[in-house]
Amino acid sequence: MLHDPNHIYIFDTTLRDGEQVPGCQLSTSEKIEIAKELEALGVDVIEAGFPVSSPGDFQSVVEISKAVKNPIVCALTRAHKGDIDSAVASLQYAKHPRIHTGIGASDMHIRHKFNSTREEILERAVTAVKYAKGFVEDIEFYAEDAGRADIEYLAKMIEAVIAAGATVVNIPDTNGYCLPDQYGSKIRFLKENVKNIDQAIISVHCHNDLGLATANSVSGLQNGARQIEGTINGIGERAGNTSIEEVVMILKTHQSLNLNIDHINTKAFYELSRMVSTQMRMPVQPNKAIVGSNAFAHSSGIHQDGFLKNRENYEIIKPEDVGFPSASIVLTARSGRHALRFHLERLGHQLSKTELDETYKRFLTLADSKLDLNDDDLLGLITVASAR
Ligand code: KIV
Ligand code: ZN
Hints:
- This protein has helices spanning 28-41, 55-67, 81-90, 107-112, 118-133, 151-164, 180-193, 213-222, 244-253, 269-279, 301-309, 337-346, 353-369, 375-387, and strands at residues 9-12, 45-49, 72-76, 97-104, 139-144, 168-173, 201-206, 227-230, 297-298, 328-329.
- The protein has 388 residues and is α/β, with parallel strands linked by helices.
- It has an 8-stranded parallel beta barrel with strand order 1-2-3-4-5-6-7-8, surrounded by 7 helices.
- The termini are far apart.
- It binds 3-methyl-2-oxobutanoic acid (KIV) and zinc ion.
- Zinc ion binds at residues 17, 172, 174, 205, 207, 237.
């Protein structure tokens, strides 16, 4: 591939970090179905699983490796030889295999998870990368809990793993702790202070514990990261991961950022969102950005009036650009005459101003008592009008 310095690589971890959600476990065939759709979406990397974690996960990585041909297929490991051996075996059929290995980088993790020291953890990180590099060329290293890690130590670790052969360095905000400017500054610091950073791609992997995953990811990209990790619908551990559809549409909407995401077929988002939601039995919240059922629904009178005059008054993304069926004008007790007239005309009824005023009064009474107004309700209002 020609190297475009502003190409943003999309690393999808729906099938690994996303699948860690309780109750969301998928069968291998369900995972293959999602992987094929991710390939059609155009993602650069599919993290297919954590092969050492269970025979089922191992098999899923094997089958996904056989099923897709364009994206890199990635397998997660801890910084353990056994994990790496398992990942290598699971990736045997992958056209483009990647091993994603790593270890905790914050003092919190070093002391209270590994009961270890900075020096020892650094050595384990380097050993794991060197070991994995003996099997696979494409090695991504994750510095877990980098969001809370000491920046000088993090920089030292990143420099060491790149020297050991890592081609992508993942800086996870594992606990969704950082503010966007803090996270962006971390990425900037690494970009400016790690001597060999140009030999690797910096990746952002943000969790959503404070609702900042998308903002932090974009901040990371603005400060020099070129790969973003996330999931469809933002599913994942606890409050979830970054929503891929959100980051992609931010970059599309804000072309001035000059971050290239043209290889993503955004029209596939809505269908894929439904598929992931159904298979994982995980409903999408109606107000979810980009793919929620209300994402393109206009319901208050002020907005509806503005939208009907010119959709761009209230539409910064076209629904069809993300495969959403269409924008909707929802009739509620907050709707105005303009929206009512729009729907009545859609049903073939042209009303004079006086008729519309009359009908609108009856409409408000009905809308105050009924949440979902359908076409029959509207036709009922007209019938009452003509019977008078
Ligand atoms: O959140 C995290 O730190 C992770 C790593 C395993 C990449 O998911
Ligand atoms: Zn994660």
